Task: structure prediction
Amino acid sequence: MKLYYTPGACSLASHIALEESGIEFDSERVDLFAGEQRTSEFLRLNPKGRIPVLVTPQGVITENIAILMFAAMANPTSRLAPLEDPFALARMQSFNAYLATTVHVAHAHGPRGSRWADRPESLEDMKSKVSANMAAAFQLIEDEYFVGPWVLGDDYTVADAYLFTFTSWLESDGVNPTQFDRVWQHHQSMLERPAVQAVLNRERAAGS
Result:
């Protein structure tokens, strides 16, 4: 299997989950700034022109939520999702969906505003809302959705890799992550995990 990723991008979540799962995989950096996601070779893998992309023996998987679930289910012994508990699994997927459809979109209105508007004043208006929208989303996570010490409680899941990815973006979005006490402690705990350290070192080396 091979994961196509970009250092520091949302694909970090899938990269960590695959590393945690113990599944054997290779990884290949995609330079978004150089436009590698728009090459004919990459578009044959993912016509959406986005990362992450996971190439498996059965075919290609795109979207973080799908790859995260694949990582958890491909090696159930890794216990990266509560696969035996439908309610807990649905709660995990609900959290991941919120990150994908609300938090990621709120962040993307800054660096990726051209997806939604062309006028400079419209782009600037969207950028001006990023800090407030990200802070509001993380306050909701802090107050309502984060159980602790991991997202769902005592058991680490792929949702933790996904949350870690977005927490890593807060400072660049103009939000002080330390104001969210439990989320910030979660971030520090993630940094201590060997799999997270291995992926961050790999991505730094690839991005240098």
Observations:
- The chain is about 55% helix and 10% strand.
- The longest strand covers residues 2-5.
